[in-house]
């Protein structure tokens, strides 16, 4: 099943090297591989937590929940989140046995031979499992840590393939239950084990904290829990092997957590967490039995900056391994992340509002680089620097008129003169409300058409209008070739080989997932030629460009199937298609309710002047009748000139079941259907597909769009569970109609005198 991270397309490259193995190999020789050496840490001043002014606040859960002390402790909680963004939580109530079991299991897992740990290794471009995160290039400095990352809640989103089966108490299993009496061994029962139990305890603790935080903020008690609906949770289990030259390496680079709140359990009593306060690194002293809690980026945004998401990092001990479990309480990908309305009564929003998918993608793209992504979401003076394009320009939000004037002046002096209609287009379009920072197309156009432009371009990543693609082509003419695709990949898949040198060299794995959407023109048996700049555009432009490129994707898929590439990436390609998404539009059902048949109240976007002047013939007869084809006759050996199609062979019952499921689904109240709403940048779900621009005319219909084949590309989040028969009936209906379509393809090929299998080879395994 697709998990919540499928949509994120994080292009980590494989780092197969286990830090534990590196540590064992170098022993005390001190020959640390260059990639782990971090000269920057020597210069950092670290304060050790003895001075009173630097003692991390301690919050006592037993006081929070005790009427007598609750008010006082809640205020303390609030100050901790405002002043520090971190606190130690004592008396949190997590069961001692659960804590001990998870500690034992995790310690046991990291003691296993590497080979065994690798059975749950993170897959290429994946996130869950054992391995490393945030490795984007072969040159990048590496953290001294092996980690295991798992989605833990909601339970149905777990990918158990990545949950170690050793130690056996780690994951939930079915057990045989010996029953007394004549029944002997009875059916299995479900036993939840250490990680499951721990994750539930943490969910409970965080739910309580969110409530007290809401009280402290003066908003509805449920307001934060509402944003963190369903309390999605994942854990990153960090194993930091000792390093004889600990002061040369970093366990975890400085970062903020891109989540609501993190609860950190120190599995063994080795210190290593440091937080940045007042520009200095401050070492957090372990407090026995406490959980270290910190505010994440999402909570900072939701509280409009009142609570702080603070940079932190992990350092290494020279003699002892260190193990921690960070449990991340996140917001669902389907939610909107922005300052709480209730808080805005007291002031302007200080952050722009983004959806969960955009937020999480942006967080990963910013590569653990401190607060960079969070800062980019701030409204007001942002000072994004674009270098190498003439003078350094600090681009400001539209509110600042002085800066707008400065920008205009700079544009006038430095940018190519545009044609009047282009200038008009730009002037007319108001600044997007949710996008305070809109770089003019021209600036992006001036970037050299090289992959190394990417980092700069990604700084201003925002939906780019389709016209940009045209302008880009006009300016740069041919896209430079940056590499070829071959079928010699490590995983039996298509692999990319760069033909450029650094800094334009793009590592194979880093490119693969993105590139699926942008391949053009096959050439020769060995490879597909690949026009590079489209990748840059796809990354810069997002929605608009990905849309244009969808036809190329189809071309590629055809190529793949007809040349029988061993393509394990088809599923990924489909996931790519999903990112070619529609813009959100209101539900027509809701509009229909408010319009009451009165033309004036129908929004302009739905009014189609062309519809009224076209002639429509409603009575078919004679030549105009739609032909009826009888499949049973086509299939019979005597068949020949028949032109009727009935008796298609799809069982009545299958059709009826599906029909009735659909009727039931659509007859639900709008809110129930909205549970399955399309996510931004996605096609699937309840809503309208193929809406690519704000001014496009809209269809008067709500639809439910689902990917049904191949079955492993199904995203069940969008498959209704009401009526209960829905999923099963769609499954049955889709497999019947698929067989029917394949059968028709055969006859169609025959009808044009082609080999009957020729169309099948294109469509057989196709979506
Ligand atoms: O292990 C630690 O001390 C810090 C872990 C952490 O910050 C994280 O996993 O996000
Ligand atoms: Fe962290």
From TrEMBL:
InterPro entries: DIOX_N (IPR026992), IPNS-like_FE2OG_OXY (IPR044861), IPNS-like_sf (IPR027443), Oxoglu/Fe-dep_dioxygenase_dom (IPR005123), Plant_2OG-oxidoreductases (IPR050295)
Pfam families documented for this protein: 2OG-FeII_Oxy, DIOX_N
Keywords of this entry: Iron, Metal-binding, Oxidoreductase
Disordered, as annotated region: 405-434
Ranges where the Fe2OG dioxygenase domain occurs: 231-331
UniProt feature, compositional bias: Basic and acidic residues: 419-429
MF GO annotations: metal ion binding; oxidoreductase activity
Entries under PANTHER family matching the protein: OXOGLUTARATE/IRON-DEPENDENT DIOXYGENASE (PTHR47991)
UniProt record similarity statement: Belongs to the iron/ascorbate-dependent oxidoreductase family.
This protein's name: Fe2OG dioxygenase domain-containing protein
Species this protein is from: Leersia perrieri
